[in-house]
Amino acid sequence: MQARIRRRYGAEKRFKLIGLLAILISAGFLAFLLITMMGNGARGFTQTEIRLDLDFPRSALFLDPAAVSGFGADQALANADFEGAVAAAAEAQYGEGGARLFSNGARLRLRDAVRDDPSILSGQATLWLPAATAIDIAAKGRGTEEAEQTYRRLADNGQARTGLNWSFLTGADSTDPTLVGIWGAFKGSLLTMLVTLLIAFPIGVLSAVYLEEYAPRNRWTDMIEVSINNLAAVPSIIFGLLGLAVFLNVMHLPRSAPIVGGLTLALMTMPVIVIAGRNAIKAVPPSIRDAALGVGASRVQVVFHHVLPLALPGILTGTIIGMARALGETAPLLMIGMRAFIAAPPGGLTDPATALPVQIFLWSDEVSRGFVEKTSAAIIVLLVFLLAMNGLAIYLRNKFEKRW
Question: CB-based contacts of 299: which residues, under 8 Å, 6+ apart?
């Protein structure tokens, strides 16, 4: 008898140790992911700049301040040779090869400075312009020996500095890692999630209400329930093929647009909301329904005045979890063409756009070393987005949760 008790206690102790080991392994993988992403991605939010002194009257930039501030200013700025002005000033200040210290974004930064203040064209100005990728990587301790020596020389002379990269937070995609931004993909994801929520949530909740409260129990209802359960486990790329066939080939909606991405992800999210909604509605005690019916309430009043408010926390939790899954999906969006190069943030639901996971996928395939840290930084933005959605789910669940 004592031996059997010791064996039971031993088995319980081993089970607890195995559970604890599983949690530690999971936490270890999560910590490794976060530390790796933070280590690489934190540098993606910074950018190295180099000082450039420009003497505009002596430069080859033949621009009249009146032309830049008046009618036709955009055309005048478009025709100006900012790249040549940066190259000439860099060669004069830093010697032969000075132009290679600056990225292609230097001419754009100079153009923006002239557009913001045309009066600088009549004199001299000192601007901080983005450094080339090699110098930027060297400033972060991962460049070649030659580039690191060049950066140290510039930094010692007060001609180089590293600060927060605002253009990464406010810009869109680019072929130059010093110019890329995440705002275009972030806004595309935001619009896509908005369409997904507006389509999937009402249809999913109403479907759950009908199946749980009104649908007759017969063979057809069973078949529909089994189909919904199976749809929740279908690979996401299948929904991408469905979206490609229905929304693009049949309905001829604009390709690579947030509305198509949202409709496709809504198809994928809807089964999850239906299943979560049914479980939440089923968890409402029957006594609530009986009490409401007993005082003369109709079936609709019972559902919308009593059952749904009590089931709302579970429905919202399932919805946010489904939305978080949709936010991280890449395959369906690739199938509907949201992998195109989009150099400007979308202005509406039908404008060309991309999404955060697709942007991360595209940057991870670039050969330039500058995109490595940008990819990690974009992953951090995506994780923050996901954490915000999960935080919203917890808040809503606690706010609407009722105990009895």
Answer: 213, 214, 293
